[in-house]
Amino acid sequence: MNVLIRARSCFAVGAFMLGFSTAWPAQTSAEPVKAKSHELAVQRDGQHDFDFLFGRWKSHQRRLMHPLTGSNDWVEFDATLVVRPALGGSANVDELEGDTPFGHLLGMTVRTYNTKSHQWSIYWANQTNGTFSLPATVGQFKDGRGEFYDQEDWNGRNIFVRFTWIASPDTPRWEQAFSLDGGKTWETNWVATFFREKQ
What are the beta bridge partners of residue 176? Predict the structure, then answer.
């Protein structure tokens, strides 16, 4: 869910395993097995990582109006979010709506899961741009925390963008941050906290 911008992703994840047959003693031959177990653990199935987000939510949003300028001018507004699964659970769609200090916001996010890379791709569109962002912001979850990255142009400067999701069944949190130095330091410019609507 990015209501600011979308751009090109420069992140790709690959893992290569080399197996060698040797006549080493048994204790040494355990190393490739250990490495393979580690790879399998890292490449776990994350297809249900966004299931916590299904349903209807109220949210409180804080946006930094002028990122990467040294400004501390934040605005706050409330919005609603409706999230549903798609493609048998390997994707999901949400719709965001709210009245902001800069106008009425209508946005849609589509998230798709790649079973080979074990990563999510996130695409955003709103009523102003009318198209989905391409390519996606890409990443995955670990221990209930999701991080997703892309690289894009922001006012003539090449920046990294990071989305962070903190999974929770009742109060999940999303943040967007920008980096001008290749990810060494980050400035958070958008924070959204969600509260599940009572049925």
Answer: 163, 190
C-alpha–C-alpha distance, residues 161 and 150, integer Å = 5
Tell me the Ramachandran region of residue 156: left when phi exceeds 0, alpha when psi lies from -120 to 50, beta otherwise.
Answer: left
Paired tokens of 73 = 């001018």
77 DSSP β-pair partners: 61
How many angstroms separate the CA atoms of 186 and 179, rounded? 5
Task: Please give the pLDDT value at position 18.
Answer: 27
Distance (Å, whole) CA 112 – CA 88: 11
Q: pLDDT, tens digit, for every residue of 59-96? A: 999 999 999 999 999 999 999 999 999 999 899 999 99
**CA-closest candidate to residue 60, choices 46, 43, 41, 77:** 77
pTM over 0.70: yes
